[in-house]
Amino acid sequence: MSTFTAISSSATGYIHCPAHRKFTPTSTPINLLPTQNARLYHHIHPTLLLSIFYLRFSAIVADPVSELFKLTFVLMGLQMLYVVLCLPTAKAGVLPKTGTYGPRKPKPGTKRTTQGNGIAGKMVPALLSTLLTLVPATPLLMALIICFGASITTHLAHTSLLATHMALLAFLPLFYVYGVDGKMWREILSASLPWDGVWGGTVGTMVGAWCGAVPIPLDWAQEFKKAEFDGNWIEGRTSIRILALEPRVDGQCRGSIADKISRRDREWQKWPVTIITGAYIGWAVGRLAGEFLFKGKRIEFDDYDDLEPQAETEKS
To answer: Are 89 and 177 in contact (CB under 8 A)?
Structure first.
């Protein structure tokens, strides 16, 4: 005679069994190259990129397509410079399980070579990473942006340039560091990588772009009320703030009010200015967070198989 007893939960009708993950990530954070140039440019790079974007912001608002097209080459060049100076390559230096930099062990019967460790040798992986970013990553990201609400019939040039900038910010370093390793990209697509400067920039770009979409639909229509108090025009109220009007000649004051009522949307609300601005800011914040606040931690998901249907108690 044998007895089997299942301890069940009356609230859920499930029993708790030993938990195990469906997918267990094995990667560790990626460290910078152990050189003075890498440490120096690692801090210069985000400041340089954000400064350029800030200086060209007015031009981006005035003509997004032309200006973003020009900035694409600037961003591409600076990102390539960053990965060459600061990051190990997938082929020559990155060891995903340790996050350290160093040559891989040669296969049996082959000699260890030092080719590709210099700046010139890293340009080929950087160019290949850029090509992978522009060809498969950018169209896929553009399709994702359209799925999230971008127009599929208009502003395609705007959307494609937005996707290009986001891809260069988020994916070029990933291709350079991890190459096309299927196991590593499984961790990337499942958001299972540990936080570091590279992964933090990717997450920050996506979250920043998402937040950047918030100001686009805001209604900035303003309704002003006129009143006189001691001979002065007083404040007009909007849903965003209170705007105090200085006492002026009647015609100038009325003209100012009419102009503010007629302009419902700000120029910087046009597609895709706020989204690309959020992407740049999010990228910089994500890099800092991944490098200094959350390094080594992972985004936790509930992917455990710890519940099984309740088994009835059987006795025999």
So the answer is: yes
What would the two tokens of residue 99 be?
A: 């996050």
Residue 101 CA to residue 116 CA, distance in Å, equals: 13
Q: Which residues contact 35 (CB under 8 A, 6 or more apart)?
A: 85
Q: Which two tokens stand for residue 245?
A: 């009007």
Per the CB < 8 A criterion, the answer to whether 310 and 27 are in contact is no
DSSP secondary structure string, 251-300? HHHHHHHHHHHH--S-GGGSTTHHHHHHHHHHHHHHHHIIIIISTT-B--
| DSSP-derived pairing of the beta strands 307-309 and 14-16 | antiparallel
Do residues 83 and 128 touch, judged by C-beta distance below 8 A?
no
What pLDDT does 270 receive? Answer: 87
pTM for the full predicted model: 0.72
**Using an 8 Å Cβ cutoff, are 12 and 316 in contact?**
no
Whole-number Å distance between alpha carbons of 264 and 218: 9
Give me the residue label for tokens 């609230």.
Answer: 11
CA dihedral 6, 11, 14, 17 (to 10 degrees): -70
Q: If you average pLDDT over each of 110-119, 181-190, 235-244, which comes out highest?
A: 181-190
| H-helix segments, the chain | 36-55, 57-62, 64-86, 119-132, 138-147, 156-170, 172-178, 182-189, 197-212, 250-262, 273-288
Instruction: Please report, for residues 101, 105, 111, 112, 138, the alpha-carbon distance to residue 108 in angstroms, rounded to integers and kept in the order given.
Output: 21, 9, 8, 10, 39
Q: 32, 177 in Cβ contact below 8 A?
A: no
As beta bridge partners, residue 15 has 308
